[in-house]
Amino acid sequence: xxxxxxxxxxxxxxxxxxxxxxxxxxxxxxxxxxxxxxxxxxxxxxxxxxxxxxxxxxxxxxxxxxxxxxxxxxxxxxxxxxxxxxxxxxxxxxxxxxxxxxxxxxxxxxxxxxxxxxxxxxxxxxxxxxxxxxxxxxxxxxxxxxxxxxxxxxxxxxxxxxxxxxxxxxxxxxxxxxxxxxxxxxxxxxxxxxxxxxxxxxxxxxxxxxxxxxxxxxxxxxxxxxxxxxxxxxxxxxxxxxxxxxxxxxxxxxxxxxxxxxxxxxxxxxxxxxxxxxxxxxxxxxxxxxxxxxxxxxxxxxxxxxx
Length: 307
Prior knowledge:
Strands 1, 2, 3, 4, 5, 6, 9, 10 and 11 form a 9-stranded mixed beta sheet that branches. The protein has a two-stranded antiparallel ribbon with strand order 7-8. The chain has helices at about 15-25, 40-50, 65-75, 95-105, 120-125, 170-175, 190-200, 230-250, 250-265, 275-280, 285-305, and strands at about 5-10, 30-40, 55-60, 80-85, 90, 110-115, 135, 140-145, 155, 165, 205-215. Helix 2 links the parallel strand 2 (about 30-40) and strand 3 (about 55-60). It is α/β, with parallel strands linked by helices. The two termini are about 35 Å apart. The longest helix is centred in the C-terminal third of the chain and has 18 residues, at about 230-250. The chain folds into 2 domains: about 5-215, Alpha-Beta Complex (Spore Coat Polysaccharide Biosynthesis Protein SpsA, Chain A); about 230-305, no CATH class. The chain contains 11 helices and 11 strands. Helices cover about 40% and strands about 20% of the residues. The mean pLDDT is about 95.
């Protein structure tokens, strides 16, 4: 099999260097590495000019990770296309394990693995592993947990885009959801992709032995989800994207359960009624704003229809 790797990057040369070093140290070398680079990113351009790495670069004038990945994907020719964040450093057997899984699983459409987070090393080292990874629960909640997944290879509902790989022909045919809000990470593009792969009749799977070290680089723009920051626009975009994706892809019953969970429970970041009460008891000064933004984004995202 021919294996391509695409990496969207923007002004994170120090982290990109680690990602490329990880690729250079693979037991099975990539046949093609393509970087999606935003026009005007002089930091990345200067790094690549001085680095001795063989990669293709594809410029894009549009902001956002989806535009960057789409431009890079169009340049690939691999039977397998691997998706790697610029702040994720793959372990030496990363590509070997990915290729092996696709060779063994003819119905496998996309696979993801564990990202070993480096934001709080002591806390992460003490975290227990779990087998509940990438699941859409019966009561309507999306569970992540990709960073602490245990167990073996299994089918799941969703993956994390910093460490994933798909069949090349399938991915180039499906593409990435272009209707998402945001000029940075554009949260929940992975949910859209995984649901589209499943709808095409292929399996979505998780293997915790496919691992990367996730160094957690800073994000540019308003989206500071999982980076310790907050912005009203970033929260609106995150919630809007999730409900836009769900409203266009899930069955009627699953959409209803997802909506009920979001409105009645939610999360501390995007609170429904239960989480709003928790924030109230904590005297969180942003509780009213978070709740209002979340409800507005839910309504807007579910009503929206892309052109």
